[in-house]
Amino acid sequence: MSASGALIEKKVKAFATGMEARMTALRDAKVKEIDKRLAAEAKKVEKSGKADRKAKKGGAKAAEAPKGEDMVVKLTFTMSKSGATQGRTGKQQALEVAEGDSWTCAGSHMNDSARHINMYTHGPGKTGKKYMVDPKKAFGTKDEHICNVATFQKEWEAEMKKQDLRNHGGGKGYGHGDDYHLELPNSRIPKTDPECVACADEYCRLVVMEGYDNNTKFEKAWAAAIKAPMAKYLKEKEKLENAKRIEELKKMVFGGKVSASGKFFSKVKDSKKAAIAVKGSILPPPDIVKEAGRAMPLVLPLVGVPKVKTFTNVTFTGVVVLHFLRYEHLTQTFLKEVRFECVASLKGLLSYAATASASGSVNINLGKGPDPTGTVVIEYSVDGLGPDDHAGQIVFDIKGIKSKI
After folding, report:
1. Where is there biased composition of kind Basic and acidic residues (predicted)?
2. 181 and 287 part of one domain
3. Same-domain pairing of 147 and 49
4. Is residue 272 domain-shared with residue 150, that is, in the same domain?
5. Looking at residue 311, what is its pLDDT?
6. Domain of 271, in residue numbers
7. Cα separation of 362 and 340, whole Å?
8. Mean of all residue pLDDT scores within the chain
9. 232 within some domain
10. What is the rounded radius of gyration, in angstroms, for the C-alpha atoms of the chain?
11. What are residue 76's DSSP bridge partners?
């Protein structure tokens, strides 16, 4: 144990002994006062001639007269042996502050120069002892009370003076708010001490990261010391919360559907290029987009032609342009836009006797998987003058960025 620890324990034990002696003396006086009053009341009853009729008729023994000794509470005092009242590190002190049991990061406990008193009541009319969380509740003006609160506090201050001890604020008076705390004079450590710095830092961590309530009294007095660590942990908490939210976003699954159908052209005799309007998209909700991070566009053009030869001098070409979007914090690929076109080329002498027709359909879905899937189909036909008349399909297999003809 440190020298200061040994000294404060010696003084606090002496304080406990002194306070017990003071309260015992007051109790003895209170007992005598009550006994004197009870004796006077009994004499008055006896003089008036009144007697216990029930005792006379039944021959029962008269009730035993009350005694002051059985009516007044007893008080005992000891030095607390709780670890929380011993010397504390900066982190241990921070916990006391965060729990609202202290209002400083430079307390004498951190210098092993403070201890606490325990006060117990015994009776009256009860067995065992009771620790008084609030010592003031053991005092009052009833017969059971040794004295009133003001007298108790006066005796406490007198014993503090005798033992040269201070209250939790470093003062010489009764320590309201931390009543049982006693410390050596001039035992506070400076705010620049590494343990004070560690205490302020740990308090901020407990409040921000562990969810302890703000100790507003402490924060007002230590505003300058906690400004930097408070900002540090607020930033760290925001970072952790953002990371947690990103993990939540990555687990989210969205869905949607894009579909369209129509004719590109019908029985055209000349080359023709036409498009079918595909309305709609498959995107996350707007509020999720705000959190989804950077958007990365991916444009995938697909060009397809019939796998078999069509009418002589007549060809078809299908064009599908898929505008995908990926987001930094989402695992699915989304579909922003679809462009759907078909080109019929009728060139050459033998195409004069032919006509070309084409229609198309789009069916793309995003479900539980990572990519939009589905099909885009072009139905085409050639009408001519002979056996080369032909009809067929150009099919696009949509599987996200792996889509193909």
Report:
1. 42-52
2. no
3. yes
4. no
5. 67
6. 256-399
7. 8
8. 91
9. no
10. 46
11. 120
Q: Order the strands of the 256-268 sheet from edge to edge.
A: 256-268, 355-366, 373-383, 390-399
Domain boundary among the residues 133, 163, 189 is at 189
The tokens describing 382, both together, are: 């050639």
| Assigned domain for 283 exists | yes
How many CB atoms are located within 10 Å of the residue 385 CB? 11
| Contact present, 174 and 157 (Cβ < 8 Å) | yes
Q: Rounded to whole angstroms, how far apart are CA atoms 266 and 356?
A: 6
Residue 198 lies in a domain: no
CA distances from 201 to 47, 104, 288 (A): 75, 13, 35
Residue 385 lies in a domain: yes
Question: Using an 8 Å Cβ cutoff, are 316 and 358 in contact?
Answer: yes
pLDDT at 54 over 50: no
The C-alpha atoms of residue 146 and residue 178 are separated, in whole angstroms, by 22
| Residue 365: φ, ψ to 5° | -130, 150
Q: Which residues contact 33 (CB under 8 A, 6 or more apart)?
A: 68
Backbone angles phi, psi at 12, to 5 degrees: -70, -35
Confidence of residue 128 (pLDDT cuts 50, 70, 90): confident
Binning pLDDT at 50, 70 and 90, where does residue 111 land? confident
CB atoms within 10 A of CB 139: 20
- pLDDT value, residue 52: 54
Q: Supply the pTM of this predicted model.
A: 0.65
Is the preceding omega at residue 185 within 30 degrees of 0, hence cis?
A: no
Residue range 327-356, pLDDT digits in tens:
999 999 999 999 999 999 998 877 788 899
> Are 27 and 146 in contact, with CB atoms under 8 Å apart?
yes
- The whole-angstrom separation of Cα 227 and Cα 236 is 14
Last residue of a domain, one of 189, 208, 243: 189
Question: Does residue 318 or residue 70 have the better pLDDT?
Answer: 318
- Counting Cβ atoms within 10 Å, is residue 332 exposed (0-12), middle (13-18) or buried (19+)? buried
